[in-house]
Amino acid sequence: MEAKNIPPGEVTEPRETVEPPTEPEQPTRRSPSALRSLNFERWALLVAWGVVVLVFSLIKPDTYPTSGNFQTIFGSQAVLLVLTLGLIVTLTVGDFDLSIASNMSLSAMIIAVVNTQHGWPIVPAIIVAVVAATTLGILNGGLVVLVGVDSFIVTLGSGTIALGIVQWISHGNNITGVSSQLTDWTIGNRIAGISLIFYYGVAATLLLFYVFEFTPLGRRLLFVGRGRSVSRLSGLRVSRIRWGAFIVTGFMAGLAGVMYAGSLGGADPASGQTFLLPAFAAAFLGATAIYPGRFNPLGTFIAVYFLVSGITGLQLLGVQNFVQQLFYGGALVIAVTLSQFARRRGVRKAT
Predict the structure, then answer these.
(1) CA R_g for the chain
(2) In the chain, where the domains are located
(3) Which range is least confidently modeled, 69-73, 311-315, 326-330?
(4) What dihedral do alpha carbons 185, 190, 191, 197 form, nearest 10°?
(5) In terms of pTM, does the model score above 0.70?
(6) Comparing C-alpha atoms, which of 169, 164, 159 is closest to residue 111?
(7) H-helix or E-strand containing 195?
(8) In sequence order, which ranges of 147-296 are alpha helices (DSSP H)?
């Protein structure tokens, strides 16, 4: 190659290499089949609920698809709905609260005892009951977060203690005769034929949905549940958030106890425990709907009434009472399996 002559005193600048312009990256688009699969997962439980209602309506056309039956279905499960909404707050951060049903029983029994046997007005009785339930949530959270005891063990023990207190203050007897004011606030008055207690459950669902989806607190709860170490490195106060979740769960259990006392007109020292299995079944089943893979209030609402619609249909068919336990137990196993599958699938899609 020939060398080019460069005049003296002239400086040559290196030529810039100009690369051809590249097209901006296009966002990855999900295939139509993936979108259809996602939408089906979101609404599958709602469709299943409709199928259950349709099947039992065809089998028992004279009793199941009646306004009275549906009014009973919606009005009778508000206590379970509020209890389950409280439960999913703790589940979202990755902890368990097995004391929630016992806590509800404690709240209901305190109202019944202080109102009927000690003559307290109903409003102070409600306040004391909710404070007691919230206090149990504070103790649960403190032992789990500060001491480091597993939430399963802590809440199993505290729930047993709460049941012992219920038996102690009630002497093992049913307490009836709670103020008619509480009964009127729950099942005495109706809107569109459905008890007011149902609308309390709807309001709690919408409020918790707003917190979960549209507030920083809801996102923090989800982040802590998905990865505590990463959340801690990101600056989130993980211990405070977990403790707060237990407090909210205790508070919601107290509210459910108020509603339960109003619907019964008193308190039963034993029946509250029957809510524990349905609450967990509804929580995990709800995690397969609307937002598959995570606990969410709207999915919980659908799951609660899906379960009770099936139970009501079976009762109208004349099945024995043990079938109800089989139904809830089977639903819990299937729901946990499906929710785990949905969560893992969501993680794979995200990565």
Answers:
(1) 27
(2) 73-271
(3) 326-330
(4) 50
(5) yes
(6) 169
(7) strand 194-195
(8) 151-170, 180-183, 196-214, 216-226, 228-233, 238-264, 276-286
